[in-house]
Amino acid sequence: MAVQKILFLVGDFVEDYEVMVPWQMLLMVGRDCVAVCPGKKAGDYVQTAIHDFDGYQTYSEKPGHRFTLNGDMDSISVAEFDGLVIPGGRAPEYLRLNDRVLEIVKAFFSANKPVASICHGPQILAAAGVLDGRHCSCYPAVRYEVTQSGGKYVAPADSMDSVHVDGNLVTAPAWPAHPAWMRAFIELLDTTS
Q1: pLDDT recorded at residue 19
Q2: 136 annotated active-site
């Protein structure tokens, strides 16, 4: 069996845990991961941010790490990838304005390939127009974008560690859901290989 190749769409101030942890988890189970960002090339990096739940009315933001890219957005083809990961953080807010990002997301959905999106990542899904009629979990502050794009918002159960699967789409509200989110994504990848 060929090694599955997973594309990560990232940008500056992507949530640190939501890119670093899934990246390492997928590498650990033998997937080949490629991270791209508009306007940057392989070897460049994006600056991450750490969002934490400190008891305030919303999350706080702290400096994260430099996450090195290993792919070039302009030269990739969706056909070479088996799945897509869209982390959250502040990056989706501006990535959703990029036509190439939206084209890539639409192509994954058209091909019915597994897509994992977390936290603010569904902002990109909403902008790409792929949520109409779909159930989608996300950080609660993003539910407006989900519902306004025709999606059905799935609220976290009792905590931020839940996951929701709707066909090829695996979504979660925030990084505490990593174990459930990545488990569901890997199970979906295993059924499509």
Answers
A1: 98
A2: no
- Supply the pTM of this predicted model: 0.96
Determine the pLDDT at residue 52.
85
Beta bridge mates, 19 = none
Out of 120, 136, 138, 164, the active site residue is 120
Is the Cβ–Cβ distance between 154 and 134 less than 8 Å?
Answer: no
| Domain 5-192 CATH superfamily | Class I glutamine amidotransferase (GATase) domain (3.40.50.880)
One of 33, 119, 136, 138 is an active-site residue; which one? 119
By 3-state DSSP, what share of the chain in percent is helix, strand and coil, each rounded to 5? Answer: 35, 25, 35
Domain definitions of the chain by residue range: 5-192
Q: Residue holding tokens 């994954």?
A: 108
Helix/strand/coil (H, E, C) string of 14-35?
EEHHHHHHHHHHHHHCCCEEEE
Q: What's the average model confidence in pLDDT over 52-79?
A: 92
d(CA 193, CA 182): 16
- Alpha carbon distance 33, 67 (integer Å): 13
Which residues have C-beta within 8 Å of that of residue 60, sequence separation ≥ 6? 51, 52, 53, 54
Q: pLDDT band at 1, cuts 50/70/90?
A: low
Strand partners of residue 48 = 14
Residue 65 annotated as catalytic: no
pLDDT at 193: 66
